[in-house]
Structure formats: C-alpha cells, structure tokens
Amino acid sequence: ITKAGCVAVHRGFAFWADLQQDGEYFPNKVVWSDFKGPISYFPTADSLAGFQEVGTSERILRMAPLGDYLYIYTDQAIHRCALVASEELFNFEQLYRGQDAMRFKHSLIDTGDAHFYWSENKIMMVTLGDSAPLEIPWMRPTSALIFDGISETDAAYDPINREMCDLVTGGWNDNTKELWWSWPTGDNLCPNVSLVFNLTRAQNPADLVDHGFTAFCLYES
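Above: the chain's sequence. Below: its structure in token form.
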C-alpha cells in the first residue's frame, strides 16, 4: 500500500481505505491490520489482518467509529462494519444508499455520539439509532448560505467553490459543544468563511465567522 485516502482505528485494528496498492487504485477497498499491529496488514495463519471491498463503483471518503460499529462513508452510500465472533471477523452491511450520501469528505465531524457531514446541499446527521442520515430542521435555514451564498449589507459570500471540495474543513469543540465548518466561496482556493452551530444552548444559535481555517484542534495547556 503506497497511499490511503482515509485511515481509522476501531476495536484495536487499523483500517485503511481508498487505496493505491501494488500499482493499482482500489477506491472501495478496506484493509485492516492485525490486532494491535497497525502496520501489519498481510493476512496469514497467525494474523487477523484482512480486506473487504465495500459496495461497487464507489469511493470510500471517510471512516469513523460510532458505538460498536465502524461507519464507512462513500460517495454513494453509508456502510458499517462490526466485529463478530466468527471466521469472518468483520461483518459489513449497507446502511443507506441515496442522494444524501457524503459529498465533502473533510466535512465529517464526530461528536462521540453522532456524525455530522455535508451531502450535495444539506448538513446531515447520523446516530446509532438511524437507518438513514437525517437533516436537522433548525440548521436548514442557515446551511443554505453554504450552498447558495449570502448577500447582506454586512455579509456577502458566493456559494461554495465545489472545485475545491476537499478544502471543506470540519471541527468539534467538545468544551462548548459546537460544530465548526470552514469552506472556500466563489473562486477562493482556501477556506475564507466559517459557520458555527451550538448544540446545547436553548436557541441552538448559528454564527457566521468571517475567517476560514484549514484545520481544527481542541487544545488545553
């Protein structure tokens, strides 16, 4: 494996997906390591390493744990895998397929009990109890400025630059329980505006921030 589009850790295994392997490209292939051996991924009689192709004609964009499952987000569907007590080791199942699949890979935010991401024109949420991603109604009016732009006297931004879709950046502030997203608008080649959603305050406020960011990290000295 010379390249991996996404990497995740779950239940003591490292998962690699969207792979360049042996000179070929495998967009829908997942490889997992031996137990607690993140760089040992050759299947042998003494190793639990293995691989699985997920879906068909799909590209795996992100993987993230949720509860006892590893959720796998492709450009067409949502799959999840579970550790099982059998020779199969991991069981893969399709959870959802449709127009609300992930579109912007770095938009995924893991809050611990939910995943948030952007589809083609919506902010979606997935929890353990959901059989399909859900759009949050109170986010809908504000999220329109991402995909349609905004033109006000004190704030004017073009719609998202879809050519720079991999520059969409999501982050989670666990202290304030806030979702942060930055993205490039118009012909910008770098994120230039951000949106913040608070998940705990009574009015669920949304704030527009007139700066963009390429990474978020919660830090305490």
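The first strand starts at residue 3 and ends at 10.
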